[in-house]
Design a protein that fits this description.
Length: 326
């Protein structure tokens, strides 16, 4: 899980770093053009002031210098747009890095196309400038290379977002009818819990004695589950909860299933309002387990990688319920 998280973070960090480089390059190009404009304008001023005769050659030279100044002015305006584009690219990359933990985060969805659009604009402007002026070949190669990297990463992120959105649209949603609590348990067991396999992870900050009973009903008879880990908070801790937990833990051991409840750090638990669960193949957003068969919420599939990453973050320094004195 950590490997996937580190890979995503590294890619988006690299995106932000390269965005900073093209921002610096764009500012440098702007400075070069401004410097060139100042030099040409200085030559023009000296020529005009020193010319006492209105000869044809002087007029021709003056027109040529004015034409160069006009072209430089247009190029400077273009470079200003390039600098603004680079600032937007760098800013959106920072926002994407900040929200890298969840690739379907609304910020990620918003800033990825912005980053891509302004990267393409930046590339077009610089290609036009490079065709008009003789810049250092190293500078040209660096700008083209880094801009291409940014566009490639943005396209890859857009593709991932697109694929995950398709996944959500195609995924089956299990509807819960609050008027049919018994029927809901059967539906959940048949459509989801009977098909769970390997290690099952549950995040529910209000996991209590009722939740334990519901969990038992839902997993009963599934011999494919090997381990169950529940991440909860200290809000529902009680002697009854620990008693029921240890009773179920001992019973499941006899069936070859390891069962653990872990208590999250308080600051992490306070930030985690969404409940979800996943096994080796699938992940779902769920209602609270103590009312999973009663609350009018759908059981909605979610990306497995996102669930794993979030679980890893929440489980850091979590404490087993077995080790807590209540």
């Amino acid at each position: 899980m950590d490997e996937v998280k580190n890979t995503n973070s590294l890619i988006i960090f690299f995106l932000a770093f390269v965005s900073l480089l093209i921002l610096l390059f764009s500012i440098y190009l702007f400075g070069i053009l401004e410097f060139a404009y100042g030099n040409v304008y200085g030559v023009y001023s000296i020529r005009v002031n020193s010319s006492s005769q209105n000869t044809l050659s002087n007029n021709t030279l003056a027109l040529s210098i004015l034409s160069t100044l006009s072209l430089l002015r247009i190029s400077i305006d273009m470079s200003i747009i390039a600098v603004i584009s680079a600032i937007i690219i760098f800013g959106s990359s920072l926002f994407m890095f900040k929200n890298r933990k969840n690739i379907l985060n609304s910020e990620m969805k918003r800033y990825t196309p912005i980053n891509l659009a302004f990267s393409i604009l930046f590339a077009i402007i610089n290609i036009l400038l490079f065709q008009e002026y003789q810049f250092s070949s190293i500078l040209v190669i660096a700008v083209i290379l880094f801009t291409s990297i940014i566009i490639a990463i943005d396209i890859e992120l857009e593709y991932v977002l697109h694929q995950k959105n398709i996944f959500h649209k195609r995924s089956k949603i299990v509807a819960i009818n609050p008027k049919e609590p018994y029927g809901n348990l059967i539906k959940l067991k048949e459509e989801i819990f009977s098909k769970m396999y390997g290690n099952v992870f549950i995040v529910d900050r209000h996991f209590d004695t009722v939740a334990i009973k519901n969990l038992y009903r839902l997993i009963e008879g599934n011999q494919n589950i090997k381990q169950i880990y529940v991440l909860s908070s200290n809000e529902r801790l009680s002697k009854d909860l620990k008693r029921d937990y240890l009773d179920l833990k001992n019973e499941l051991i006899g069936k070859g299933i390891e069962f653990n409840i872990l208590i999250m750090k308080e600051e992490l638990a306070n930030e985690q309002h969404e409940r979800f669960m996943f096994d080796n193949k699938n992940a779902y957003k769920i209602p609270p387990f103590n009312i999973i068969n009663k609350k009018s919420e759908h059981i909605v599939p979610m990306p497995l990688d996102d669930a794993k990453l979030r679980y890893d973050e929440l489980s850091k320094e979590a404490t087993k319920l077995d080790n807590l004195q209540i």
